[in-house]
Amino acid sequence: AAGVIQSPRHLIKEKRETATLKCYPIPRHDTVYWYQQGPGQDPQFLISFYEKMQSDKGSIPDRFSAQQFSDYHSELNMSSLELGDSALYFCASSRTYYEQYFGPGTRLTVT
Amino acid sequence: DAKTTQPPSMDCAEGRAANLPCNHSTISGNEYVYWYRQIHSQGPQYIIHGLKNNETNEMASLIITEDRKSSTLILPHATLRDTAVYYCIVRVGNNAGNMLTFGGGTRLMVKP
Fold it and tell me: Are strands A19-24 and A74-78 parallel, antiparallel or unpaired?
C-alpha cells in the first residue's frame, strides 16, 4: 500500500540558511499534518491543512511557513535556521478523523 | 484535550501479553481515547481508538473502564518488534483537522 513520502530524508544546513521539506500524502487523503520531534522529545504538532486550507496551528515558529498545493502535497519552509531547529520532521496524512498515517520523517541537522 | 498519565516504562516477556495502562480522569463525554506507538525514530503508528466500548483489532485490544477515567491497551502476544514508545492520547474525535498531542508515553521493552 502507498505510504506518505517525505523528501529529503536527511538534510544538513548551516545556521541562518533556509530549508524546504516536502511531503506527499497517501492518495485521496485530504488532510496533511506536520510534526517536529527534537532529540529525546515527543513529537510536537506544528501545522495542518485540510483541502489545501490551513486548519490548525500549533507551536510553529514565525520563521516557518507551510502550504498545501493543488495536488495535495505540502511543503514546510524554514528560514533563518537555528541550532535548535535540528530535529526529525514528520508529515502525516489522513482521510478519516481517527487515523493519521505518518511518513518516515526528514532528519534536519543545523550546524 | 484531557491530560493523560502513563507509566514511563514497562518490560514484557516475549510471547506474553503486554498491558499498558493510561489514566485520563478529566476526559469529556465527546473525547475519544487513541493509542499510537513510535518505534525508534520512525513515524508514529496508529494502533486503536475507542469512546466507551472495548475495542479490538488485528494489533491490539483497548479496554476502557465504565467511568472512562482510565483505559488499558493490550498487546496479546508481544514480540520484540513491539518494543516502542506507546502514547495514549485523548481528544475530540469527530474533526478531521484535529492534531495529535503527544506527551509522556510508556517505553515498552519486550525482552526475549
Answer: antiparallel
Give the residue on B whose Cα is nearest the Cα of A4: B43
Residue with cell 513510535: B38
Q: Is A50 on the interface with B (CB under 8 A)?
A: yes
Amino acid present at A77: N
Q: What is the mean pLDDT, run by run of 10 residues, along chain B of 112 residues?
A: 90 97 93 94 94 94 97 97 96 70 94 96
- A42 in contact with chain B, both atoms CB, cutoff 8 A: yes
End-to-end CA distance of chain A: 36
Question: Dihedrals φ, ψ of A53, to 5°?
Answer: -110, 140
Instruction: State the SS3 of A84-106.
Output: HHCEEEEEEEECCCCCCEECCCE
User: CA-CA distance, A45 to B101, in Å (whole number)?
Assistant: 7
